[in-house]
Structure formats: C-alpha cells, structure tokens
Hints:
cellulose degradation, 41% helix, hydrolase, EC 3.2.1.21, binds beta-D-fucopyranose, GH_1_N_CS
Amino acid sequence: xxxxxPDPRLAERAxxxxxxxxRWGAATASYQIEGAAAEDGRxxxxxxxxxxxxxxxxxxxxxxxACDHYHRYRDDVRxxxxxxxxxxRFSVAWPRIKPDGSGPVNARxxxxxxxxxxxxxxxxxxxxxxxxxxxLPQVLEDRGGWTNRDTAYYLADLAAATVTRxxxxxxxxxTLNEPWCSAFLGYGSGDHAPGRQDPVAALEAVHHxxxxxxxxxRALRAGGARExxxxxxxxxxxxxxxxxxxxxxxxxxxxxxxxxxxxxxxxKGGYPQDMRALLARFGVDRRVEPGDExxxxxxxxxxxxxxxxxxxVRAGVGVTCGPANPGSEGCEYVPQxxxxxxxxxxxxxxxxxxxxxRLSTDYPGTPLMITENGAAYDDVLxxxxxxxxxxxxxxxxxxxxxxxxxxxxxxxxxxxAWSLLDNYEWAYGYGKRFGIVHVxxxxxxxxxxxxxxWFTDVIGRNGLS
Length: 465
Ligand code: FCB
C-alpha cells in the first residue's frame, strides 16, 4: 500500500488554537531558585529557619544555593528567550528588600530585581512580579508572623517600596502566592514554614494574609501598577458519592476552606457565611475589624489560578481531613483511582476544566490566568537529554482542558508552566523535579527537557497539534 501524504488542511484543522494575545510563560519563586541566602544584606526567612530545623525538610536541604539564579539570572533569561517564553513570573524575596521585615529598604536587594527586570525586557519577556511567595522575614515571624495584624501592613510597605522601584517596567503584579498554603500548611499542619500547628493561628493567618493582600492592592495601584492580581491554589473538590447529602456537606466545608474563603472575600465583598461561622467557632472573628472586608475586596484585574490535582472527600464518623483543614471533623479525603505524579498527586485534567467553568459561573467578570501548572516526575538525564514524556502528557492534557474551558467562554488570558527550572520543592527539598529545564545541582548545568522543546512548539503555534 502506498502511504498517502496527510492533507495539510487536516493538520491545520486539528490544531487547537488559543486566543490571540494569550500569554505563555513559566513561573518560579525566590526561595526556590535564588540561593545567595546571605548576600547583599538578605536576612533569614522562615524557610531558612525551617530548613535548618532537624526533620522538617527532606535530607535537611535548604535554599542556601538552590539554582544559584541570583548569580546566573542572565543565563537563565537567555534560556527563557531561547525557549520562546513571553512571560516570566517570579517572586521577590522580602528579606532581601526589607531585611528587618518592616524597616528601611535595602537598595542592594532591590538592585537584583532591577537587573533581572531589565534583562527580561531586553529579551522581550514580560516580567510578572509576585510580592510574597512564602519567604517571610524570620524577624517578623518572631513577632507572630501572619498571626500578627501588623504583618499585613508590612506587606503593603513592601509593595510600595517594590512598585516604586520597578513599577515603571513591571506592569503585572501579584500580591500573594497561594495564601492557603501560607495559612493552613504554615500554621495549621506545620508542613510548611514556620511549622506551627494551631488552628486558631491558621485562621488568624487567613485573615491577615487577606488583609495584607487588600492593603497591597491599594499600595500597588497608588504606585502606578497597571495590572494587579492574586494567585490562589484553587481546588476542584468532588464528592465520593454525589447522591449522598453528607458527602456534599463535606465537599462544601473543604470547598469553603480552599476556595470560597478567599474568593468570596476578594471578589464578593466578604467572607461566606459558613466560613465566617468557622472563624467565630475558633474565636477569630474578633480579628475582623470594621472596614477590613472592604479593603480585602479592593478590585483586582486578574485572578491567578494554580492547579495541580483534584480532590475527593466523603463524610464519616470519627474522621477528619487533618490539621490543615480546621473544623473538618466528619470529613475525610478519599483516595482516587487515578495515575499519580512523583509527588503522589492524582492526575485528572478534567478537574481543571471543571474548576475554570465553575469560576466563570460563580465569579464572573474577573479575567483568569493559569499562573502555575505542572508535575514532578522521576526524570533521568541521559547524556544531554531528559525524555519526560509523562510531563508532556500532563501539560498537554491540562492545556486541552484550558482550551475546552476557553472555548466555552472561560476568560483565561494565559498559561504559565511550573516550573522553568527544577528547584527547591519546599519540604521535599531537591528530591522532586518540576522543571521543564533539568538542573544538575552539582554543576548548575541547565538542560532543557523534551517538555521544554515541546512547550516551545506550543508557544510558537499558540496552540496544540
Ligand atoms: C505550588 C507552589 C510552588 C511549587 C508548586 C509545586 O503550591 O506555589 O512554589 O511548590 O506548588
């Protein structure tokens, strides 16, 4: 049989195209890549302390050196340009910019971001700056951290100082990355720095993080920021048995903690009733002062969505969803019969589609952007190649889900892969690799994985084949 050459018009039709102007890029975070932990006036963050506490982080790994991006940023930006990235989402290290947490600005700390931003712009890459991706100055934690209302005001001071220096070149700003993790993993389960285990502290942190967000939105706008956003790790929470009202009540509670407590406060003008009742149950409603909810609801221009995995819950007697979920007595997470990543996280891209459609229905009018999505796999570097077909499969499936949601009207403006580089994966240290670029931590050699090459093609055609 003679092979028939494929009709190019068919290939053309098979391409799933994203809207004109869709923003493509990758994300990182300061503590995960910078290193240079004690340079140019930087003081320790809560993650430096946590990493040094025995038993907290895999093999005691710390971010002291990480990807040495602080010294190698020029090469890293060149690599981003080679990969065709149009947007780069990074975070600033609070203890570089304000070593005393609340005191004077350290110009040398800001100088680094100034150089980074210029380097990005000179390569045609749009910088997107996040103020807080978890590296709170330890000096502030010593004064209560996010359980202390003052921290919210100090975040707004950081916002003002940073936008004053970079606002002429950085158009898009994000206040917080995943405050759910800061509050509930940092102060509830203790799986993240500062490692506290106290439901009251976790709920206080929720309110102060949100207050800090609102105050920072205002500070950023006053400093001329053009596009202001918040990034949440939103969950698609499914019931074990959709016909069981108890399971549905369990879903509602977990959905409240992961999604509505943040979304309603920011986009609907106040805490939802059930979450306000939860705050009251733990005595934290006292922390909500008159006017706070109006500050928290200061308008934003973009909602960042970080998505990794779906969750499934059911109701049961004598169970809980654990200390990261205050008030979850009678609810439990159930295992899902799905393939998993190296993190053990279940993979199901339809959950991202459902989440985007739900956001479009319940919180219309706010443009969305996928500010993190990706997966860790046990990559193997052979010569100068990492054949990470599983990561390509993950990214491809999630991009198809985004495309489907966009086709049905979800206002998604862009997609950023997590992460540009393999990096310090918090309590997992360097043991988990999320990068589309492999990092050899002995030599700091960067090697784009097959997924990076694949992503370059996706960006180039603004779509999927
Ligand atoms: C997100 C974090 C990011 C990274 C990915 C895997 O929760 O924002 O720093 O750790 O997970």
